[in-house]
Amino acid sequence: MKMAIVTGATRGLGEAIASGLVEKGVGLINISRRDNENLKAMATDAGVTYSFHPCDLTSATDTEQVFREVGASVFSSGADTIYVIQNAGLVTPINPSGQVDAGSLEASVHVNLLAPMIVLNEMISASAGKSGQMLIVNVSSGAGSRPVYGWSTYCSTKAGLNMLTETVSLELSTSGHDHKVISFSPGVMDTDMQGEIRSSSQEAFVEVEKFKRYKEEGTLRSAKTVADALVNLITETEVESGNLYHINDLV
Description:
Keywords: Cytoplasm, NADP, Oxidoreductase. 46% of the residues lie in helices and 16% in strands. It contains 8 helices and 7 strands; from the N terminus they run βαβαβαβαβαβαααβ. It has helices at 12-23, 37-46, 60-74, 102-127, 152-174, 192-198, 208-216, 223-236; strands spanning 2-7, 27-32, 50-54, 81-86, 133-139, 180-185, 244-246. Helix 1 (12-23) runs parallel beside helix 2 (37-46) and helix 4 runs parallel beside helix 5 (152-174). The longest helix has 26 residues, at 102-127.
């Protein structure tokens, strides 16, 4: 039996990844603020298990509690393969340093970096002495590898996420675990997040016109295209732990 835990599966890439996994016969645990009735119906039709666990990823306490419970449950379920897709993320705040409020900084760091750290910690802890191989996917961004004006928080948290992947991979291999962790850079997609980016002012985000052209010229990939590539990567191939996989190399 295969199980997947997906954060941020309410819409966009997270929903598309979750859908793709369900179509492959993988049971789904949806970790989001709100439930997704479409995913629930898909799981029923596919004959796989589905559960929803509300979680506020801006809260370290809530994240720790939810994943402690989910980790214990999934490693007692008899699943031989467990996918953990850390998809939830915030592109905001979009503003140069000196013009960002502390509250939005805190929320971004919590969702983009601290929550994934907590999730990894809880899931690895829950796996101790249990059967089942775990593959963790940290959804990153090209912004984690280059500076972008107005995205100091987003770039920094995604760069940190990439290093988290490499470091935890090293720890897992050194301690003899069979679990793997990778990063995945999905590129630019036609999602609500792109809408947020395009609504930025030129002063806040100097590359805004380039992102508007992506939409106007139809060069944005669909969330489904990107999700299908990731799902095929993790279900049909042997990934190398610690690697950063980019969508451009998969489609």
